[in-house]
């Protein structure tokens, strides 16, 4: 019985024309007006909505909010639609196991079902979530990553080593697809330290002339120490030109210095949406791929748009995912803020500061919201800060909630008794409230953050409800 294969299911050349990369990206969007961009977004949004109305998950979600198809006439009406988050997806999975009813595959005969790519999230914030991709959406997702790398300045014929995890996790696989299909780089899929031992990873870099590292900043920084332990000098024996990863707000200087002065580039995305925004060669914020995503920044408590320059939850609508698992007003629960002003490339796209913290990992202390992931950036002004830390939230016998920040420092703690006070005063100034500080030697937080096991180290240990 005939059924479609992957690359027969969509036109890859048309997709590249619609979501250009390389020189074609700037040729298409440099100088475009905001009005022209809005019209493009609106066309893609209406096509997306037509598909989403066919899917039980959205029929149920929007119906419960009293929304009917005729209520959404353009992108201007998007705020009429309720937002959703991972908890809604997981509820769908629980009610319609094993993959939920959000993909659009429900009720299709086997010979009618399009090819799919199946992965899960990492499970950092709970049970792993199933994610299903159609061929067109999957490839455009890869194109957007390649667009980011090439915009940053990825050189022709680079040799890239990836420390993203594989297995069921989506990240490592779609990074491989982006690089091998839409750049001419040679790709080494080393994966995490559990997949390829750290010592072996640094020897791979040396032996194959790796000049670009991609992955999560914490592990990439650790690899620099592993290289030195193995008698290899970063910058001399291993010459890294670029590090492209999820840098958060932790200090860039220490990571760049650890790899001999490598240039650092940040980008942002989640498993459900793919690459949403990426730093450009100007390194002044992350450009949102607004031809592919409609990004709203909403207040954590009210879900109303925040003022320009204020921090809010990133709520994303993927304008290109109109085949399998459309994503419309998905609350990432990741915090950022918009950067105002013009950009040197005359792109019509907004810029954001990148990942500032998670609202679902927020600790509310004495009326003030504290985002543990954002504390790393605050600690960066401490000269001896290694970049590793963890926050521990606890409740004392009186019911008072307290937060203690364990901070790794390179200098001997006993030799610098004033360092704890300095750190305490600095955090109080930046957070607006006093938190506890405990300085520890390098490696002192590893057991709590699970740095050796995870791509994304834990930054909050919440013991308030234990």
UniProtKB/TrEMBL annotation:
This protein's record includes keyword NAD: no
Domain AMP-dependent ligase C-terminal: 367-464
Keywords recorded for this protein, A-Z: Ligase
InterPro entries the record matches: AMP-bd_C_sf (IPR045851), AMP-dep_Lig_C (IPR028154), ANL_N_sf (IPR042099)
Key word Disulfide bond present: no
Source superkingdom: Bacteria
GO molecular function: ligase activity
Gene name of the record: paaK
Listed name of the protein: Phenylacetate-coenzyme A ligase
Record Pfam families: AMP-binding_C_2
